[in-house]
Design a protein that fits this description.
By secondary structure, the chain is an all-alpha fold. It has ten helices and no strands. It has helices at about 1-15, 20-35, 40-50, 60-75, 75-95, 100-115, 115-135, 135-150, 155-170, 180-190. The mean pLDDT is about 90.
Length: about 190
């Protein structure tokens, strides 16, 4: 995907379709950040700023998610939290909630990385509720797994999450070998 994004930039410039190139720049920066390079976060953030200054600003929520994930990868929690907050606000203004659970999961991971377990659990619980309401089973699985990793409140909540994980894994989606499904199975095998 990153190779394709790299090819998009010059093609977009030659065709005079700047938005494509800017979106590709966000992807390229995201990829660099996932490889541990802080410059990738900066590249993605600069490109996102260009999107927000353009007619395409209303479509930027997925790009904010990429910037937040890039920030998480390089340990810039404050930047990641700002990006998720802006994305959630943008989605609320546009009445679009398709990435809400993912953004809440990113917030949970960012809070957890900063040592704020209570805020992390609150975001993960909200992500779980949103994902379940939307029928977004993969996000639901990720949220339940994250809650177990963070350590949920009482035994009743823990038992409910374990039951939910078992039910989600029984569905046997085509993405059975996704890392989040492997992690959920490992948590269950270890007794949750």
């Amino acid at each position: 995907a990153l190779a394709c994004a790299g090819e998009v930039v010059p093609v977009a410039e030659a065709a005079g379709i700047a938005a494509w190139g800017v979106f590709a720049e966000v992807f390229l920066g995201w990829g660099e950040a996932l490889a541990g390079r802080r410059a990738g976060l900066e590249r993605a953030a600069r490109a996102l700023d260009r999107v927000m200054d353009s007619i395409m600003a209303g479509t930027a929520a997925p790009l904010f998610a990429l910037v937040a994930e890039a920030a998480l990868a390089v340990g810039d929690r404050a930047h990641g939290l700002r990006a998720t907050e802006e994305a959630l606000a943008l989605m609320a203004r546009n009445d679009g909630r398709h990435l809400q659970a993912n953004l809440l999961l990113l917030r949970a991971e960012l809070f957890a990385g900063g040592g704020d377990a209570d805020a992390a659990r609150a975001c993960a619980r909200e992500a779980l509720a949103v994902a379940a309401a939307q029928g977004a089973r993969l996000f639901e699985l990720r949220a339940a797994t994250l809650l177990l990793r963070l350590g949920v409140g009482g035994e009743a909540e823990r038992a409910g999450i374990l039951d939910r994980l078992r039910a989600l894994l029984r569905r046997g989606d085509a993405g059975d070998e996704l890392p989040c499904r492997r992690e959920a199975r490992a948590l269950l095998a270890a007794g949750g």
